[in-house]
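Lab notebook page, bench 4
Experiment: in silico fold of construct C2
Operator: M.H.
Input chain length: 716 residues
Purpose: comparison with the prior construct
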Amino acid sequence: MDATSSPSSSSPFDMVSSALGQYIPRCGAAEAAGAQGDRAARPRVPANPAPGRQEQILGAVNLDRELRITRCNLDAPVFAGLDAATGSSFVDLLPPGDVPTVTRRLRQVLETGEPHVARVQRLRRGDGSELVVSMSILAAAAPQEGLTVSLIAMARRLHLYAAETAIGTSLDIGETAQSLAESLLAWGDVAAIDLDFTVWTGEGVTGQQGRLRLRRAALVPDRAWPDGYVTPGDDLPSDASRLLSQATRRDDAAQAIVIPDRETIERVLGSPRLVRALVPGDGAAAVACIPLVLDGTPPVVLGVAEVWRRADRPFGDGELLDLQELVARTSHHVDLARQHQREHTQVLALQRRLLPRTGGDTIETASVYQPATPDSAGVGGDWVNSFPLPDGRTALVVGDVVGHGLGAAATMGQLSMEARALLSAGLAPDEVLEHLDETVSLLDDAESGLAAGYSALGSTCCIAVYDPVSHRVALSSAGHLPPVLVPPDGPAGPLAVRTHPGLGTEFALREPFDVQAFAAPPGSLLALYTDGLVEDPSISIDEGIGRLADAVSTVHPWDALQQAARRVVSQLAPVRRRDDVTLLLARMLGYRKGDTATWRLPARDDAAPRARALVSALLGRWHTRADTRDRVVLVVDELVANAVRFAGGPITVRLIRAGHGLLCEVGDTGNGRPRLGPGGLLDDGGRGLHVVHRLTTRWGVRWTDTGKVVWAAVGT
């Protein structure tokens, strides 16, 4: 391998080496032994290097896929004593306790190609001393394979700055605490972060705190710990929480404490049980406890950071000041993660409340909702819902509100409830979308939308309504991805849905919403979803939908639908989700043919008597109780008579045997909405609807392309 860096090279290693202002030193295969000998002979670097060449703090190491050193540029005096010979393993430079964590990070960059930047890390010199560096791991540029590791020897200020930068890269509480613990490890042998329970739950914190209830959030390095020792996710014993609370909050002022030796540690803890729970091992002899304090009046303690050392490394006053400064600088990152967790929890609770609970007698549903991973922008506005309509049909709704967080969640909840109310009132899917479109536009005005920093313009929604008698689905979409249909005797594929720009688009761009109907025979499977399930940067969206169709087509009629939905999501959803993943599966069952009957009658004066006779005969064959039969016949008589009197055109009468009741439907060509007047049973003008109202458990109207249908449910 050429030992010099080409000026035109663009590999990460050569770019770092170019920044050094020198060529790569001689540590090729032919001269490895000599290079290693030169490094071993160098003196230990003093704490305050002399000006000039010794101020250089940047170095670089190239690794192969086995994490062996292939090239290195650590010729600056500050790196003296690091045995980085070509062919040796990079992890030999690490303290033993850090090997598992760093190895995992190196392997992760090899597999994903995503860099790991500004990790505060200790390296071992040959004389046993340690060097603190800021380590960044980059994938080697093609055609080379392996990694480039850049190392910045850290002065005190640079160390604090790099640590704070690394800690503030995530909004996840666990990852934030882990980053803080890894940074603190530069001052000790073991670092732990214990956070108050209210931080974990995202609850509001105030200065009026009682005793802290601590839970371990992070612990480094990764290794096997003694039995009984508190590890991440475990609550500290109540006595330990009480001791730490009292020690760090004396006189209502949060302050750091240092326990200098093992004997004092055991005396302070007071019991062998607490020693086993809090002391990481027999070698630990000193501990510094630094409270994480949120500035305020009064200040708020979020938790405690603990740094443990061996007996031969007592804490100096300067080191304690550095620890306090780092923890003070990063406490606000912990609070940001707490606030994010609070918002995440609230939105997630709303999301799950909107998920469908059950299907029904004519349809089986199952849903899966997976929120975006915690380090993303937050839970999004994806939602699904399925619910029975009062007239026996079932509505299936899926939507994706623009944005993340509470603004998206509030809009999502409003649109979901509005869609349910309008569908239950009998509006067709396209009419419901028209109302949702207007709602999104109203929410985006200067007072309620844009001024609050959130806009839902461009949100999408798809509404499908399943009729279990005709076995057809009416569907309307506002910019949403097409549902996937798996018929019982045909290939699976996305439905041909007319494209639409979405909800709240500019008036000039708006297109009318239309309704498309398609057959869904018993046994059909319909999948509604959001884009987080099918979007993948490596493939087109059509290919992603095709993968979903293939996965759904493997669901057998005898499979439990909820388990099948989880299996489909596990096959398609990315591990690191940057967006919510939502799937709703609906298996169409419908009514049996013998449970429904439909008649078409001319709008004449004899329509009501004919309807009474037909319905009475059918109820006799269904062996309906006499009192129920009388009520149903009377309801049908009144509805048909009203249709003849106030509507016109051919009249459709439909009777459905549904569960524990009967559903009567009378359709006509009129467009007027029947309403209960102020009169009663003796008023001729409104007698019919009052009779229907008294004899039924519920009744209502739905609109069709040719008129309306008045339906009424009668209990048996």
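Observations: The chain has a mean pLDDT of 79. Residues 269 and 462 are 61 Å apart (CA to CA).
Next step: discuss at group meeting.
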